[in-house]
Amino acid sequence: EPIVHNNTVALEKLGWKGLLIDKHDLGCQRYRSSKYLKVDVTSKSFKDILVKETPRQIIDYISLDVDDFSVIALEQILSLNIIFKVMTFEHDFYIVKEERRAPSRRLLQNAGYFLLFEDVIGLKTEEQPWEDWWIHPDFFHSSILQKKSNNLWHYECINKL
Known about the structure:
Helices cover 30% and strands 24% of the residues. It is built from six helices and six strands; from the N terminus they run αβαβαβαβααββ. Helix 4 runs parallel beside helix 6 (98-110).
């Protein structure tokens, strides 16, 4: 969904520019200001695009939500040694339980990322665990690592970070 319940729409409204990658054209070219590329995240093309579009190999923010292919996309990103500062990873625990949440947490923890907020809940999920928010500790003051919360958070808390 290019507009409703989309993390990067709010960022674009604040002037952020990024790269949108999706297998389907859901109106991104029409409704969004960021560059849009239509590509399957399980393909070699996805890795090629990541290499081309991230020459410094550092990404400020990733909103990773490709449903059944989220863990595969995460593996592809990590295999290229691309570092991100912040990631929201939609694991959809409320639907698929540990199918995506457990492997994504294992991969990210092994890669040195810090789980800042776990099982964030969203309005569209009727207060059920939806996603995790990750940070790379090299880009944040160590005091933020002490503020980790195990509580469920509403999506509105992004405005308080």
